[in-house]
Amino acid sequence: MARGKYLFTSESVSMGHPDKLADQISDGVLDALFAKDPMSRVACETMVTTGIAIVAGEITTKASVDYSDVVRRVIRDVGYIDDQMGICADTCAVMIALDKQSPDIAMGVDANSTAGKDIGAGDQGLMFGYACNDTPELMPLPIALAHRITNELTAARQRGDVDWLRPDSKSQVTVEYDGHRPVRIDTVVVSTQHGPKVGQKEIRDFVVKNVIGKCLGDFASDDITYHINPTGRFEVGGPQGDCGLTGRKIIVDTYGGWGRHGGGAFSGKDPTKVDRSAAYMARHVAKNIVASGLAERCEVQLAYAIGVSEPVSVYVDSEGTGRIEDARICELVRELFSLTPGKIIEYLDLRRPIYRKTAAGGHFGRNDSDFTWESTRRATELAEAAGTTAAAR
Question: What is the DSSP string of 102-138?
Fold first, then answer.
């Protein structure tokens, strides 16, 4: 359990960050396939660099999709529409190198279902979900604020508030905690790609006043240290400034480093891959535990073996904040939640084209009805099963 005062930092990156562009292309491909064949098996990886996007992986589907068109549409929507940005939706090269899913993997997933049982996990692995009462969305405060800043920066660009903002940007927020309680914002870092005709002072003034100022809420103060484009210039960005790859922002995608991470990325994977579906379910379980009032903070781990339906382990850690023993909370999770891949897919309704929008702004803490894993509809049931009263959320 955390004690005393300490600083904790999390970062977020915008939809125009090269790694996030790659994630959105991979999930754009997944959505295009799911729109026509919800049973598609998809493991899609993307690399973007100056003037080219390369899509590779393993896909088994009945759908017919123009993959090049999907790639260009995502690049255009993100905002790379000018050759001067290093990659342009209309002129970049697109290379497609896709194969079918390995029959050995397919056998592990399908063997149970052909016998009338639940599908097996698409791979071995461990997945973590986390929730805490720092924020209304039950996310750690540093990553919640970092996402708000990058999202607001993107919104300002899309609204045309200024003409010099470009798609690539990053934020970082350092929060001071006293035990588990966030008490103040110590430092905010923002780096944003910009056009050639703007000065550092104009960038700083706009970002501090019109972006960060909208996002800190009650934590705004005159004591915060700001670092805005600290190198002094960020004109070359996006895939031209840094090669982008699918799955390279897994901490940004989850909890900003708070809690543990199993190591598996989400984007480009259909929900038979427990890297994605079980991580969503672990978040759902953890969030409902906190929303129920059984704990103020909660981490849930699920682990699977390839081809096996039931998880090999379920673990709950309330970080010393539980109203009942963690072992009892774990028992309740086992009793109330179906944790096999097939049941998770059905329960969270995951065979839908909802994934591209998960690939920017974080997969958790979002107020969107398509993000079914964010629902706290089981909180009252958990509290009643534990013999307590659900917290008001």
Answer: PHHHHHHHHHHHHTTSPPPBSS-EEEEEEEETTSTTS
